[in-house]
From TrEMBL:
It comes from Trypanosoma cruzi (strain CL Brener). Residues 33-413 form the Cation/H+ exchanger transmembrane domain. It holds the Pfam family Na_H_Exchanger. The lineage of its organism: Eukaryota, Discoba, Euglenozoa, Kinetoplastea, Metakinetoplastina. It is a multi-pass membrane protein. This is Na/H antiporter-like protein, putative. It is found in: Cell membrane. GO terms for cellular component: plasma membrane. Keywords: Cell membrane, Ion transport, Membrane, Sodium, Sodium transport, Transmembrane, Transmembrane helix, Transport. One of its GO terms (biological process) is regulation of intracellular pH. It comes from the Eukaryota.
Amino acid sequence: MDEPAKGNDAAEELETLSQNVLFLMMLIFCGGTFFMTNMSKIPLPYTVVLFLYGIFVGFFAHWITPDVATSLGNIPPELLFYIFLPVLIFEGSYAMNVHALRRVFPQVLILASVGVVVNTCLLALPVACFFPEWSWYSALLLGSLLSATDPVAVVSLLKGLGVDSRITAMVDGEAIMNDGTAIIAFKLLLPAARVGCLKDSTWNIILKGVQLAALPIIVGPVFGFIQSYWLRHATGGIVKTCITVSVTYVCYYVAGNIIGTSGVLTLFFSGTFLSFYCPSLFPGREGNLVYNIWEFLVHLGNTMLFSLVGLILVADVVPTLNILDLIIIICMYVAVIMARFLMLEILLPILNLFPYRMSQREVTLLAHAGLRGGVAVTLALAVLQTGIEAGVNILKVTCGVVLLSLFINATTAEKVVTFLGHKRKQEHRMIQMEYAMDHLEVVRQKALQKNKNNVSYRSANWAAAEAYVKEHLLNPYKGMSYLREDEDTVVNRLLMKAFKASLWRQRDENLISETVVLTISRAVARAIDSGELIEVRHLHRRKPSPHVEMTEELEARLIEENLKPLWVTVSEIFLGKGYLEWAHVRVQQNAFMTLLSFARCLDEVNPIKYQYAKNELHGRRIEAWMTSQREEVRRVIRLLYETYPAATMCIATSRAVLRAVNELRKGVEELHHYHGFGAKPTAALEEMVQHMYEHIPRSWEPPRLDNELVIAALAATPLGRGLDPEEINTLSAMGSTKNLYEGEEIKLEDKLFHVIVFGSLKPKLNRWTASSEGEYGFGCVIGLERFVVPPQLRDNQMNRWVVTSTECQVLCIAYRYIEPFLWEKSFASVRAFWRAVAVETLLPTLEHMITLPVNLTQSSRDHFTSIMMSGNPLIGPKECNAMDWSLQFQLCFYIRGSDTTGLFCNGHTAPCYVSAFFARRLKWEDPQVVLYAVPVNVSDSGYVPWSQSANKSPRGSFMPQRSSAAEADLSSAMMLDYIHHEPSSTYAEAADIFSSILRGIIPGENQPRSFKIDPPVADVGSFDGVDACILQNPENFVTNVPYLNQLFLRYATVLEGLCIAALRYVRVPTDPLNAKHAQYISEQALEFLMVFFNELTILSAALRRLSRRDTTTSSFAHGVKRQEKEEQLQDDELEDIRMIGKVIMWHRVAEMHGAFQLRTMVLQMKSLANRRFRYLSESLRALAEEQPSLKGADSVEELQRILLDLNP
C-alpha cells in the first residue's frame, strides 16, 4: 500500500510542479507583452528589458518557488533550441532583404566561416591567460561560444536605425550563418574539451565539418522548394501559416537529427530560398494574417528565450559569482570587442575584393554590432550539463559577456550609428518623405475644415485641436543626414518605387503569379540600384549574338527563356525538349502576364510621373521614357498575341475571371459593412467567392466561335439587348471588323454604324454623341444618330473619333444590310433598333433632366442608359396618337416624322425632347413618325425614374422582354432610394404642377416667398383671358419655318427645366444637390437667353426691313394696318431691350453672388413667350406663303440669307 501512495504523491507533486512551471512561463510572457506595449516609454532595447525581466523573475521564483526555478534552470538546452530557435531563424532569414544580401553575400560567407575561426582563435588567447588550468580545447570552446553574434539579438536591432540596407543585410546574414558555424564548432570541440584531446581523426573531423556546413546548402533549398510548392497549392491564411510553421520545425529536426547537419544553416538557406524565389507567397489579406501570426510567434520566442536565459543566469551563475569573476567577465567583454575588431581588420583586404567595399566606419559599426545573446548562453548551459570541470566558469563568462553586450552595445547602438554617420537616408528617401509630409498637411487641413462644417462639433476647441495635430505631425526623418544623389537618379528611383508598389498591388489582387513578381521585381531592384528607369528589354537580359538579327520570333523566345525555370532547362538536357510541353505553355503564359503587368505599372505611374520632376528637362525625359516604353510593351504584347495565341487566350480569360472575383469580394465587404450582413451570412458569401477563386482553371478551352467577342459586344449594345441570340449572330455576320491602334482616327460615314468590340474611342468635336464622360468602350454604338439626323443639321467636321486605348476593334455594319433584316424579322426587332437609336441620340438630353442619386455605384452613362432602355419607342402615327398620356407621366422624345401642326417636320427637325407643356396636344400623321417615351415621376427630386413598386400601366412593363442584361441594368437604375413628396404619376397631375409654377406658385409650399420683381407688362400672366402660357398650346406659336420651330422647342425645354429646378429647390432647399441643380439649370438658361436674344434681334431687324418694303407698295388701308404693326414691332423691340437688360443683370448677379432668381426668370420667360411668339408666328406664316423657300430654312444663317435677299 505504501508504494501506490508514494506513486500518487509523486504524481500530485509532478502535477503541481507542472502547473507552477506553466504559470511562471505565462507570467513571463505576460510581462514581456506588457513591456512591448510600453516600449515607447522605456529607454532600453526590448531584448535588454527581457533579459533584465528574466533575472527579476529568476530571483522572484527562487524566493517563492525554488523547485520551479530549479526545474526551469535544468531545462535541456537542445529543448530550448527545438522550441524557440526554428521560428526565430526562419523568420529572420525570410524577412531579410535578399536583394541587399545578394550584393554582400561573399562578405557574409567569409565572415561567417573564416571570420568565426579567426575570432575563435583570437579569443582562445585571453581565455588561456585567465584560465591557465584549462586545455586549449576548452579555451577554443569558449572562444567559439563568444564568436557567434546571436541572430535573436541582432535581427531586430539595426532595421529601425536608418542604416544602409547592405550593412544591415551583412550583419543579419552573418548573425544567422555564424551562429550555425559556431554550433558546428561547438559540436566538434565539445568532445575534445571533455577529455582534453581529439578522439577523431583529422579526416573524420573534416568530413563532419563538411557534413554540418555543406549539406544545408542543398537540404535548405529542397525544403524551401517543398514548402513553396505546398503553399502555391494551398489556400487560406490559416492553412498557409500552419504549413510554414510545421515545415520549419520538421526541417530543423530532420536536418539536425536525421541527416546530421546544421539545423540553423538549413533553416537559413530555406528561408532565403523562399524570400528570393518566392517573395510574394502571401498576397492580400491572407498575407496580413500570416505575417501577424509569425510576428506573434517571434514575440513569443524572443520573450521566452531571453527571459529563460535571465532566469538560468540567476539559477546557475549568481550563487557562485565573486569579485574575480566580475573582473574576468569585464576583461573578456573587452577582449571580445577587440578580437572582433581585429578579425575584421585582418579580413578587410579580402572583403574589399568584392563590389561592396567597406571603410573603417563600416568596420567599427560591424565590431560594435556584434551582440551576443541567448544562443551562446544556451550552448554554455549545455556545456555545464555535460559535467565538464570548466563548465561553471564557461557559463559565468558567457552569461556575463552576453549581459554586458546587451547592456552596453544594444543601448549605445543608436548613438554609435549616429556618431559614425550611418544614420542617414538616401536623398530620394528624404524627398519622398518631404512629399509625404506635404500631402499629409493638405489632408490635415481638409479634415479639420470638413469637421468645422459639422454642426455636431460646434463646441470643439478648434485652436487646441489644430495645435495638437500640427504638433504631432512631424517628419520622421527630420535631422537625419542624407547621401547626395544625382537629380536624375533621385527622380528615377522614386518613379521605380511607385512602379514597384503597383506591381505588389497586382500581386495582392492575385492578378499575377509568383514568377511574374520575381521577374519584374528583380529588374526593378536592378534599376533602383543603378538609378535608372526600367525598360522592356530588361525583361529578357540575354542578348543575341551581334551577327544575329533580332526578329520577332527571336525576341519572343528570349523572353520565354528568361522566364523558364532552372529545373525545366536541366530536365530538357536529359529528356529532350518534347516531354515538357506543358511547362513551356506555362512559361508563355507568364511571359504574357509579365507584359500585361508591366503595362499596368506604367499606366499607374503615369499620373504621378511629374510629381518629383524638378525642371522641364526632367519632365521631357520622363515623358520620353513613358511614351517609348508604352509603345514598346504594346508592340511586344501584340507580338505575343500572334506568337502564342493559346497562352494569351488563357491568361486573358483568367484575368477576366480574377477581376470579377475581386469585385465580388468587394461586394461582399460592402454588404457586411453597409447593408447589415452579419458574420455568418458574410462568411457563407466569402466561402462561395473563395471556392470560385480556388477552382479557376489554369487552362481554358478556346472560343467555339472566332467572333465570340464580337457577338458579346453586339449583345451588350442597346440594340443587341432587344434581339434574340440567333438574330445577334446573323447581324454580327453582316458586318466586318476593323482593328485600330492608339491615336488613329475613324471617320463616321452616312451608310455605316460601328460597335466597339474592345478598346475605347473618344469623340473628337462630335456634338451628336451619347457620352458625357468622353469615352466609349465595349458594347457601345457610334454612328446610329446619322440614321435619323438630317444631313443639313450635321457638321461634317464633327464626325471623327480617336482611339484612346492601346488597341481597338470595331464592328462596322451597313444600314442597307440591317434595315431589311430588322424589318423582316419581327416588330420586336424594329423596336430594339429604335430603342438603340434613342439611346445613341437622346442620351445627352436625358442627362440634363434626370436627377443622379447620391449613392450611385455605376457610371453616369450606364445609369442614364438603363433609364433610357426602360422607355418604349412609339412607331407610326397610330401608336403615337393612341398613347394614353393620362395614365402615367412620361418624358416624350422626338426621333423623326411630322405632326399635324407643323411644329415637327421630317427631314428638318433633329431628334430632341418634346416639352411636357404641349406633348400630349400633338397629333401625328406622318407614317414615318417615331417617338420615344420614358416613364418618370415628378417629385421633389425633379424627374426621377419610375419606381417598380408604383402602380404600373395596363400596357405592362416598359422593359425589353428579351434581354436579362437590360433587366439587370434597369433594376440597378430603378431600385433607388428616393424620397417622394406628393409625387405626380399622371400627365394631368404634372400639368397642374407646371401650371402652378408658371403662375409663380410652388405646390405644397408652406408660405409664399416674397420676390422683388419688376412690374409685369399688361399681358403678363394672361393669355387669351386665361392665366396660361402660350407654350402650352403649340397651335398658337407654330410657324412654317423649321428653324424658328426648333428655337421655340429649345425655349420650351429651357423653361420646363427652370420649372423643375424651382420645384426641387423651393420644396427641399436644404438638399445641396437641389441647390447645385438649380445653379446648373439657371446658368444654362442664361446662356440660352443670351443666344436667343441675338437671334431674335436678327429676326426682328429682317422683319422690320420687310415691313418697310410692304409699306411703300400697299394701299392706304393696308398702310394704316401696316403702320400699326410697325409701331407694335417697335414696342416689342423696346420690351426686348428691357428683357435683355434683365438677363444681363441676372448674369451679373449670378457671377458676383452665385444667386439665381428662379421665380423671376420663370415669369419673365413666360411673359416673353406670350408677348412675342404669336406675333412672330403670324408674321412668318404670312411671309412663308409669299416666300416658300422659308419652309426649308433650318438655321439662323439660312433664314437670315433668305430674308435679306428679299428686296426692301
